[in-house]
Write a structure and sequence with these properties.
Elements lengths: L2 H12 L9 H9 L1 H18 L12 H14 L3 H6 L5 H24 L5 H23 L5 H12 L6 H13 L3 H12 L5 H10 L6 H14 L4 H9 L6 H15 L1
């Protein structure tokens, strides 16, 4: 077997079980080929990173139907490591470079500390933080472009973990909310934006998004978020929504309740 064939089998080698024994030839090849052995180490490190991704809890007030749809997406995302790599949901080379880059940055930071313990430490730490932010943004931007809705939801959840995301990521959330072809991804984007609804500009964007939405679940979630912002623009937007001929009765009910709440 050549290196290409061996590398294709490495993901299976990682999750090796009694029912999937690999030929001795693979292990012999790894024992004498440093390139393939390095590739195995990279995959093991990436698997470690993937296993640390924590599962997002769905807030209690999210509509029950949304819970069901989200569960469906979670089921499609429950793939083995082999399938995640083979289906190429995210570029292996990008993940490898990011993981390697983070290790280099960390080691570089410590080296810098010992070489220049006083004068350069603050500058180096600040630079290190900025580089790591840029790397995380790179992973997010790569995930949001993936074909799999579950990967795009994962990108949105990463943004939600950032306390102060940069404007580019906020713009990406609104773009996802307004134009993603999958309703579950749009719902996830709306939920992520809810974390920053106290920001007036973001709150205005949430309210404005009601004009473009046609899916009832997304409309209901945005109505609830818009009402929570209690902005002056919410009631006029809800009245405009009520005038739409294609609006479902359930959505109308939420809009009417929202207007009533804002009037109290």
């Amino acid at each position: 077997m050549n290196c290409k064939e061996i590398i294709e089998l490495l993901p299976e080698f990682i999750e090796k079980s009694p029912g999937k024994d690999l030929p001795d030839e693979v292990e012999k090849h790894l024992s004498r080929c440093n390139a393939c052995k390095d590739e195995l180490k990279k995959l093991l490190h990436i698997e470690g990173l993937l296993s640390q991704v924590r599962e997002e809890k769905v807030p209690a007030k999210v509509d029950f139907a949304f819970r069901i749809m989200l569960e469906n997406e979670k089921n499609t995302n429950n793939l083995s490591f082999t399938n995640r790599i083979n289906q190429k949901h995210i570029s292996l080379s990008i993940l490898t470079k990011v993981a390697a880059g983070i290790l280099l940055l960390i080691s570089g930071g410590f080296v810098g500390y010992f070489i220049h313990p006083v004068e350069n430490t603050s500058i180096e730490v600040s630079s290190l933080k900025q580089e790591m932010v840029e790397m995380k943004n790179l992973v997010i931007l790569s995930l949001i472009k993936q074909e799999s809705p579950s990967e795009r939801i994962k990108a949105v959840s990463y943004i939600k973990e950032i306390s102060k995301p940069d404007p580019e990521l906020i713009e990406m959330l609104f773009s996802t909310l307004n134009s993603d072809r999958n309703v579950n991804v749009r719902l996830a984007a709306a939920q992520a934006l809810s974390k920053y609804k106290d920001n007036r500009e973001i709150a205005k964007g949430i309210v404005k998004s009601l004009e473009t939405q046609t899916e009832p679940l997304v409309q209901i979630m945005l109505i609830n978020l818009a009402v929570e912002t209690r902005g002056d623009d919410v009631t006029p937007e809800l009245n405009k929504l009520l005038n739409r001929s294609d609006l479902m009765d359930e959505v109308k009910s939420f809009a009417q309740k929202g207007i009533k709440t804002l009037s109290i």
